[in-house]
Amino acid sequence: MTALPKVFAAIDVRDLDRATELAAQLAAAGVGLKFGLEFFVAHGAAGVERARPAGAPLFLDLKLHDIPATVEGAVASAIETLEPDFLTVHSSGGPAMLTAAMKAARGSRTKILGVTVLTSLDDSDLDAVGQKAPVLDQVVRLARTGLHAELDGFICAPTDAATLRATIGRAPILMVPGIRPAWAADAGDQKRVLTPAQAIALGADHLVIGRPLTQAADPAAAARKVLAELAA
Ligand SMILES: O=c1ccn([C@@H]2O[C@H](COP(=O)(O)O)[C@@H](O)[C@H]2O)c(=O)[nH]1
């Protein structure tokens, strides 16, 4: 089996031609492709098939969160149409929903990743929705629930990675967004961020990077720069 790339580029654009162009440039630079809600709501699985260069590693970031039967059906549909390398569900959907997602993925090559606490949230945001702070405790709590349901891995912030690794061990996959290279303009709506090298050093297996690549003057050059920084 070919190893999956360290970095996945988030193709968070609505225009199909622009997404296709970005996907071609970024895949050629050696990163995988992540299609999420903005693109998927506009273009669906057919759009992903059109925008994705043949064979490019695919992360379908749908962050599914619903009753168990609905999530089981949605995971089955995603695998039937696209068979992505990775697919996300929200770990906060609860044990039965997570078990249903894993049931639908059984026998496929798709790895199911549980989103713990979004990288755009901090302690005060958790408080506002009635969840117990600190964020890190909630991340660990949700990962434990996910482990019980035998999820393949988790989405967490780079600032959570070391604690989560120490809790869950080496085997589960850690896919980490909230990445900002030192040369990136700003964090935007992300609240828990670190650089690519810091995230890998703390235990991330894969990184998700969106705007620092897609909004760069030369997205492929920006992706190559990140990969060179990681190699160094
Ligand atoms: O906790 C999460 C889960 C998913 N994401 C997704 O990653 C990218 C990040 O994009 P940037 O432009 O690098 O901020 C985006 O597609 C999110 O939906 C996340 O950021 N945090």
Oligomer: single chain
Strand order of the largest sheet: 1-2-3-4-5-6-7-8
Radius of gyration: 17 Å
How would the global form be characterised?
Answer: globular
pLDDT < 50 stretches: none
Q: According to CATH, what is the class? A: Alpha Beta
Supply the CATH superfamily name.
Answer: Aldolase class I
Give me some keywords for this one.
single chain; alpha/beta; TIM Barrel; globular; binds ligand LLZGTKA7
Describe this protein's structure.
With 232 residues, the chain is α/β, with parallel strands linked by helices. It has one domain (7-231): TIM Barrel (Alpha-Beta Barrel), CATH 3.20.20. 45% of the residues lie in helices and 16% in strands. It contains ten helices and eight strands. Strands 1-2-3-4-5-6-7-8 form an eight-stranded parallel beta barrel, surrounded by five helices. α6 runs parallel beside α7 (161-168). The chain is globular and about 40 Å long. The two termini are 25 Å apart. The model has no long low-confidence stretch (mean pLDDT 97). Ligand LLZGTKA7 is lined by residues 10, 12, 36, 61, 115, 118-119, 155, 177-178, 188, 190, 208-211.
